[in-house]
Amino acid sequence: MNNKNQNIEIKRNFELKTKLVEELKNLLNLNIDSKSKYEKFTKLKNNWLKIGKVPNHLVFGINNSYNHQVKVFYDLLYLDSEFKEKNQEENKKIREHIIEDALKIGKIADKLKSYRKLLILIRKWNYLVGPVKAEDEDKLNLKFDSIIKDIKKNKKEYLIDREKFENENLDTKKNILNELKELLVHLPNNKNEWIKFINIYTQLKDNFINIGPLKLKENDQLWKDFKDLNRKFINEKNLFFKTLKKDYTLNINKQIKIINELNSYSETKELLDKKILIEIRNKFKSINNVPFKKNQKNWNSFNNLYQKCLEKIDSSKSNENKLKNEITIKQKKLIDELFVNFKLEKLNIIIEKWIKIGDSNSQTESIRLIKNLEQKLKELNINDTENIVLNVKAKIFSEKNINEEKIKLRKKIEEFQKKISQLENNFNFIKGDPNNEILSNVHSDINNYKNELKKLKKDFKIISKT
After folding, report:
1. Angle of helix 56-77 relative to helix 34-50, nearest 10 degrees?
2. Reduced to 3 states, what is the DSSP secondary structure of residue 184?
3. How far apart are CA 151 and CA 144, in angstroms?
């Protein structure tokens, strides 16, 4: 831009700033609410920053006019103490954020670039951010001024001895490149590690870029190496997240499949065992690599169905327990009915009723019936007591109890078979008078054992009739 055009631009900027000051004056008298006024005020402050330079001899005057109108406007707004408190706190946070940015800028290796960025922050500090509490103002100004001083000092030193700074920056760039190379040798294996990795890589990359170009012959090669590393980083990152996306899809489908299966169970009359239900829940929980929000949504769907199935099981168990209690009460009444004026003829009638009322899955009353029956039959000296009892057991005992009876009988049968076999073997080795008392006793034992064995086999046959 030539001097003539530049002068025209500067004059136009002055006119724009003068007009903006007038708008600030008029804003005070606008008949609108405080919120709308403040929004317009903020917009005018932002516009002020966008306007370029004005003639040097007019800078002081126009800036004074602007600052005066800003102060008047704040004085008006701060008549509302609640707004004042809130606004000053917001302004404090903005100034603290500017200080944080200034500290970061101070670390930029390119000291001229650092200084240019600082000038933007100074304008923002002076013209955009509103007042803070008096006790905060001095502390904040002191911090910011100290940073400004350091950055200006660094700029001055840089201009005095550029070669020294260039060489230092060259070493810094080389060190950063080595760190980036080392990072890319050990790539992460999961998403969380990748996020940390990206943050570390990005910080190093920004540090490299912030140094800026060097006026040294090595600069081109450094930038080439940097671009190659960055290309590799982008390719590896894209490859990982592309694969991760496939895993996400696969694992989401696994979750949906389990949800659909559980939904089918919840809608049918079929009851799941609680252990199986817990296994299904553990299976769902074991599915990893699902986006957080999707995982939360699927878990909520699954858990609702899971609770529904649990309630279904508990409800069924409650009904089942109720039915068992009813059966137990009826069994007790039948026992009382049998043993009041006991007659053997009543036994079959009672057992038929017993079978009709169903199984309570508890053998307590069945065992009580058998014990009382054995006792009563012995009291009455009724023949064939054991057969009668076995017949009743075969009819009223559960499969588990019948199997236990069969095991006991089978064990006794095996014991008697061994005894008979042993006596018969011993008998074959003994020679003597057939009328010998010892031999006669052995014969008698064998016959007794055989009779007992015959009885046991008969009992086994009876109890097996189920």
Report:
1. 160
2. helix
3. 11
Distances (CA, A) of 412 to 146, 419, 423, 445, 449: 102, 11, 17, 16, 11
Angle at 404 between CA 402 and CA 406, to 5 degrees: 70
Name which of 81, 184, 88 is nearest 132 in CA terms: 88
- Beta-carbon contacts of 290 under 8 Å, excluding residues fewer than 6 positions away, are 248, 251, 252, 255, 298
Can you read off the two tokens belonging to residue 359?
């199984």
The residue among 64, 87, 65 whose CA lies nearest residue 76 is 87
What's 107's DSSP letter? T
Spatial separation of the C-alpha atoms in residues 290 and 44, rounded to whole Å: 48
Give dist(CA 53, CA 390) in Å, integer: 115
Q: Which two tokens stand for residue 310?
A: 């649990």
Contact between 138 and 95 (Cβ < 8 Å): no
Farthest-apart Cα atoms in the chain, separation: 156
* pLDDT tens digit sequence for 43-72: 999 999 899 899 999 999 999 999 999 999
Integer CA distances (angstroms), 385 to 44, 304, 353, 409, 416, in order? 112, 58, 21, 17, 21
pTM of the model: 0.49
Mean pLDDT, rounded, for 237-249:
91
The tokens of 276 are what? Answer: 């199986």
Q: Which two tokens stand for residue 227?
A: 């671009």
